[in-house]
Amino acid sequence: MADMIIKNAYILTMDPSVGDIENGVVVIENGMIKEIGTSTQCSAEKVIDAKGSVLMPGLINTHCHAGMTIFRGYADDMQLQDWLENHIWPAEAQLTDEDIYAGTRLACLEMIRSGTIAFADMYIHENKVAQAVDEAGIRAALSYGMIDFGDKEKADKELKEGSAFVKEWNGKADGRIDTMYGPHAPNTCSRDFLIRVKEQAVKDNVKIHIHVLETEAELNYMKENFGMCSIHFLKDIDFWGPDILAAHCVWLSDGDIKILAEYGVNISHNPNSNMKLASGICPVSKLLDNGANVCIGTDGCASNNNLDMFEEMRMAALLQKVSTMDPTVLPARKVLEMATINGAKALGIKSGMLKEGYNADMIIVDMNKAHLTPVYDVASHLVYAASGKDVETTIVNGKVLMEEGKVLSLDEQEVIDIAIQRSKDLILKINN
Ligand SMILES: N[C@@H](CCSC[C@H]1O[C@@H](n2cnc3c(=O)[nH]cnc32)[C@H](O)[C@@H]1O)C(=O)O
Ligand SMILES: [Zn+2]
């Protein structure tokens, strides 16, 4: 007796050896995909009739600061440095465990609702982020964000906290949580600190999540202080490898692109954040042409300002087309791969495809809508017409977190009400 069967689905397997399956069936057992095809002999505790809707791998958000939902719309329309130094960092100094817990539950609610089944996070009070993830039922690669600004004492304190988090939470929440080290960026972390972090991550056999070359300001800072850009600087300290998840990677030379591809680095492209902060345009098409693994992230809600990965896919496609003046770049299926298969590779999880033996991490998208009619090509609608609001069912690790638009793993109104209350208290503290 299997746990669950989903039937009558148009299945986007994302598996290149299978393609799409019309009127498909998926059998789920112990959190994994047991069977996929057009029929099954199995019976199950629970049967979901997809009624012709699209069943696809859930989306994977590979760069987020989930707790920052508490700052959604708090500081818009400014440059990154001003935004961080004069608004966000002073506000973050006021954040408590309960603020981050409330903000992360709100982020998990938003992600479950909009079809994200896993996300990569780098933030503070990360224990509370992990607790919220555990309760919400979503999958996540979590890191405590670390900055030392060359201060040895702060470096020791940050690495101690980052290391304790890595060990306490790795593999927890039924295996849905992986931990990483999160050195913030090459211009906020010293050379020695980055070397120590890399050594520790290799020793602990975990990955590293870092911001790289988001802005031209970082590029200029690195050239002035080290005589080279961040990519060559990190290459010089043997930092690069397939264990690295590098967010943004906007200001790259053709030589940098070759290095990132050669070392198997995972690049998280965050189009909305890069456009909103006027950071620049990541050369996604060139990175892909060089064989680099490019995935997609939203960044935090204070620089996006939502966590809708369908919107992020669409922005990635359109931004690349207009910036290269070539409408053929980043076709819909390629963008879908970035948000599923490439994201899973970046996080090292067996998700991103609907295939026997893979995690049962999937979503059902209701296409019976005016704005999704008629359907000539399902992939086209998923990237160019759909949004997270069209997701009706979200399944992670074989558990139904949302069914027919009703979230089951969180009390939606309670999560929203608490986040509102916390934001009011926070603003009072910040303004006093
Ligand atoms: N322990 C560190 C906290 C780092 S958490 C990750 C940091 O990244 C910041 N952040 C959020 N979005 C971005 C971005 O787009 N670029 C760079 N930093 C960001 C976020 O506000 C947070 O301060 C400290 O001592 O400040
Ligand atoms: Zn970020």
Structure explained in plain terms:
The chain has two domains: 2-57 and 353-407, Roll (Urease, subunit C, domain 1); 60-347, Metal-dependent hydrolases (TIM Barrel, Alpha-Beta Barrel), CATH 3.20.20.140. The protein is built from 15 helices and 17 strands. It has helices spanning 80-92, 97-113, 126-136, 152-169, 191-204, 216-226, 230-236, 254-262, 271-276, 284-289, 309-324, 332-339, 341-347, 378-384, 412-431; strands at 2-12, 20-29, 32-37, 44-49, 54-57, 59-64, 116-123, 139-146, 177-183, 208-212, 244-248, 266-269, 293-296, 362-365, 391-396, 399-403, 406-407. The relative contact order is 0.17. The mean pLDDT is 97. The structure holds ligand SIB and zinc ion (ZN).
List keywords for this structure.
432 residues; alpha/beta; Urease, subunit C, domain 1; TIM Barrel; 2 domains; 9-stranded mixed beta sheet; 4-stranded parallel beta sheet; 17 strands; globular; binds the ligand N[C@@H](CCSC[C@H]1O[C@@H](n2cnc3c(=O)[nH]cnc32)[C@H](O)[C@@H]1O)C(=O)O; binds zinc ion; EC 3.5.4.31; zinc
Give a short synopsis of this structure.
The protein is 39% helix and 23% strand. It is an alpha/beta fold.
Detail the poorly predicted runs.
Answer: none
CATH superfamily membership of the largest domain = Metal-dependent hydrolases
Task: Enumerate how many helices there are, as a single number.
Answer: 15
**For this structure, what is the CATH class of the largest domain?**
Alpha Beta
Query: Which molecules are bound besides the chains?
Result: ligand SIB, zinc ion
Main sheet, how many strands, which sense, barrel? 9 strands, mixed
How far apart lie the N and C ends?
Answer: 60 Å
Structural class: alpha/beta
Number of separate strands: 17
CATH topology of the largest domain: TIM Barrel
Rg: 21 Å
Proportion of residues in helical segments? 25-40%
Q: Hey, roughly how much beta strand do the residues contain?
A: 15-25%
Would you identify the CATH architecture of the largest domain?
Alpha-Beta Barrel
Indicate the mean pLDDT.
97
User: What is the domain tally?
Assistant: 2
- Shape, please? globular
